[in-house]
Amino acid sequence: MNPTQIKLVQDSFIKVAPITEQAAVIFYDRLFEVAPQVRAMFPPDMTEQRRKLMATLAIVVTGLSDLPSILPAASALATRHVAYGAKAEHYPVVGQALLWTLEKGLGADWTPEVAEAWTAAYILLSTFMINQAYGRPQAAE
Questions:
Q1: Which pTM value belongs to this model?
Q2: How far apart are CA 78 and CA 73, in angstroms?
């Protein structure tokens, strides 16, 4: 990711901040719609899970300016995801749900440049996490 992309991700995430609860609901609704098989990995009451998602996203987005600062946490998160039953092939589906959610949440502010920046950020982090979790690099788009 280049500095312009990092700024685009960070600036656009600030615009999502006022609707974080709604964004988390939209994200999980979309995820379970496109990948119903993953629903069993989550608790029946998603309140805490939605809060954790948005808090983690905030940390990651802020940390993009200093990537080494967030990689240990991303590695630990990847390991926990394995314990929950996550597989490498889930990462692209999660990415698609995230990008779809951001597009809905940002509306007209979801430009091709913002989409490209978020895609780059997700690919960067998800590829790292897959490598950490499964010990081998795999494409994550």
A1: 0.89
A2: 9
